[in-house]
Q: What sequence folds into this?
């Protein structure tokens, strides 16, 4: 069982819908991440939260809005998405965001998003 | 130049053979290197990390690092069909404030 829990596992939404992806970890990690992965491509970084503050936004369109209510939770709010936003959305966590941790990132099982 | 590059696949090896996966990186300041395995439709799973030059062994997996050549590899001995997956090399890249940057992945198929 993964120690990073993502819900829902699958989501189909229309282009006018508003939905949210949720991520939870209880490993005491202080950095959390959202990645987007298209088929047969590597994960691409979207957002980084360090100590509950947004530290990196990789030029992600505003239709994606992250939120970190506390050190264990990370949300990704979705609004007015496009069909090309359909992808696997991965949440990850790590001890910190310095990149020096030798333990890497722990990924959740992902949310398979389809925009119709 | 891409930050992290992996040898192009797909790679097919017979069961019991050694699978060799290679990765080069551009940031000489990188200190930690990771190999993730991703089964189709699943999320990446960390299988190895290495931060010192030389070899690191864990069961059937051996990671090799050469910082002078900016090269990291993964060897899988006695390959099994269950090893069939995409293997992702990942390096903290200073261009993204040392966030984990992934190579394009190598799809490995182990033939029974």
A:
């Amino acid at each position: 069982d993964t120690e990073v829990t993502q819900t829902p596992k699958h989501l189909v939404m229309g282009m006018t819908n508003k939905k949210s992806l949720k991520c939870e970890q209880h490993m005491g990690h202080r950095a959390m991440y959202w990645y987007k992965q298209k088929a047969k491509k590597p994960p691409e970084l979207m957002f980084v939260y360090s100590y509950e503050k947004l530290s990196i936004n990789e030029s992600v369109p505003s239709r994606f809005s992250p939120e970190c209510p506390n050190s264990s939770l990370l949300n990704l709010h979705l609004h007015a998405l496009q069909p090309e936003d359909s992808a696997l959305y991965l949440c990850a966590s790590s001890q910190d965001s310095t990149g020096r941790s030798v333990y890497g990132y722990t990924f959740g099982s992902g949310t398979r998003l389809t925009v119709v | 130049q891409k930050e992290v590059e992996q040898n192009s696949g797909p790679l097919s090896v017979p069961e019991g053979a050694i699978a060799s996966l290679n990765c080069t990186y551009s940031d000489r300041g990188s200190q930690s290197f990771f190999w993730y395995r991703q089964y189709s439709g699943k999320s990446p799973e960390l299988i190895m990390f290495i931060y010192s030059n030389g070899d690191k062994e864990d069961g059937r997996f051996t990671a090799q690092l050469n910082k002078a050549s900016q090269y990291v590899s993964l060897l899988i001995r006695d390959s099994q069909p269950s090893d069939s997956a995409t293997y992702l090399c990942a390096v903290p890249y200073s261009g993204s404030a040392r966030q984990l940057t992934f190579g394009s992945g190598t799809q490995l198929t182990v033939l029974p």
